[in-house]
Amino acid sequence: MKTNLVTPAGWNTLDRELKYLWKEKRPQVTRAVSEAAALGDRSENAEYKEGKRELRSIDRRLRFLMKRLDELQIVHYAPSQEGKVYFGAYVDLENEDGQQATYRIVGPDEIDVENQHITVDSPMARALIGKQIDDEVIVETPSGIKVWYVNKISYVRQ
After folding, report:
1. Which of 27, 107, 111, 132 has the greatest number of CB atoms lying within 10 Å of its CB?
2. Measuring CA to CA, which residue among 61, 52, 51 is closest to residue 17?
3. 75 and 135 in contact (C-beta within 8 Å)?
4. pTM metric for this prediction
5. CB-based contact 36:103 (threshold 8 Å)
6. Residue range 34-48, pLDDT digits in tens
């Protein structure tokens, strides 16, 4: 089961996608399907069939987004979080080999591998929650136990 937590930025991204699909993309595809249907025989009309398929896909995503946005709980930053790792934190880590990594702990709807945004449900995030600077973090991975040290914690992208 997914955690229903999201950062304000993550919620805004999902909300923008919902509004774009509903107000721009769906009407555009609906017009294209109507125009294709007006051309005649629908059984051999590739534009019509493709448009209907795309419309079903958009409708599925819209239903998902509407339901998901209702379930999500936005977690706002609180000054009392300073100095400890909580939801929404950017954490700079270093392992015993000197390898460095920076992760941001976010909800499952915000995972972004390219930007090192990890879900709060991941083993790394669970090990980090509540830690402070200079704390040792032990993470159990499929390749064995890894030890990391917390170098920096912030709640603002730097």
Report:
1. 107
2. 61
3. no
4. 0.83
5. no
6. 988 887 777 778 888
Same-domain pairing of 38 and 13: yes
Give the model confidence (pLDDT) of 45-90 as tens digits. 888 889 999 999 999 999 999 999 999 999 998 888 889 999 999 9
In this structure, what CATH number is given to the domain that contains residue 52? 1.10.287.180
Q: Are 9 and 76 in contact (CB under 8 A)?
A: no
Same domain? 110 vs 130: yes
Overall size of the chain counted in residues:
158
Two tokens at 95?
């392992």
How many domains is the chain partitioned into structurally?
2
Final residue in a domain of this structure, among 74, 94, 114: 74
Angle of helix 8-20 relative to helix 46-71, nearest 10 degrees? 150
Q: Which residues are paired to 128 by β-bridges?
A: none
DSSP character string of 76-131:
---GGGTTB--TT-EEEEEETTS-EEEEEEE-GGG-BGGGTEEETTSHHHHHHTT-
Q: What domain range is 52 assigned to?
A: 5-74
* CB distance 125 to 139 below 8 Å: no
